[in-house]
Design a protein that fits this description.
Largest sheet: 6 strands, antiparallel
Radius of gyration: 21 Å
CATH architecture: 4-Layer Sandwich
CATH superfamily: Mitochondrial biogenesis AIM24
Order of helices and strands: EEEEEHEEEEEEHEEEEEEHEEHH
Distance between the termini: 65 Å
Number of helices: 5
Helix content: 10-25%
Number of strands: 19
Amino acid sequence: MSNIERTSHELDHRIVGDDMQCVEITLDPQETVVAEAGTMMMMDEGISMKTIFGDGNGQEQGFMSKLLGAGKRVLTGESLFMTTYTNDSNVRRTAWFAAAYPGKIMALDLRDFGQRLICQKDSFLCAAKGVSIGIAFQKRLGAGLFGGEGFIMQKLEGDGQVYIHAGGTTVERQLVPGETLRVDTGCLVAMTQDVEYDIQFVGGIKNTLFGGEGLFFATLKGPGHVWIQSLPFSRLADNIIAAAPRAGGRGKEEGSVLGGLGRLLDGDN
């Protein structure tokens, strides 16, 4: 545990579930959790919900500062607004949050990672009040153009707890200085600020045309921590679209014996 004194609200939590997890946040009186819009699952009576305009750190800001923070979030493809949940009662209350697709939730204390994490734009779920949710520009042109997440990723700064969602199963790797890891560009969930991130061309005609892994790898060079997901949402969405029925109600199995039998049993002509 880090010895850095915490200025953010200190949250108690319980992660529930296996492959489709949710997180229960227990709030002491007047404690607040900041969440991405649309992630709330349920909450106890006595918790007040407030929509805020800005980067979600909960500090007093002028209108222009709030506008700049909101504008940064738009660049990452997120909503202009975030939502805070504050326990206004005099006893402990709980609020529950969940992501929109199957995966794992990681509870991370920013004090353990240099008070800053870089993560992909749709992985942030919620955080303690006092954490700033901003943007991180990729410095290298290749990483920006071909990195799967564009020029911009989310930056979580502060000394509080954050909750990040990853698709499928999560693998954490600690990279030693100079160690390089190559991953599919969509599988990167988060990394510490010291990790060098770049893009490498797969190479080879057969690899490029028939490898099925895209044209580029993300290269991550230590030292630092990286978190990798086994099922990026983009891959899940592509598989669902590929398996969805085509126009006219016929699916991927069109022309096969099993496909014809299925349509016969369903009453289709």
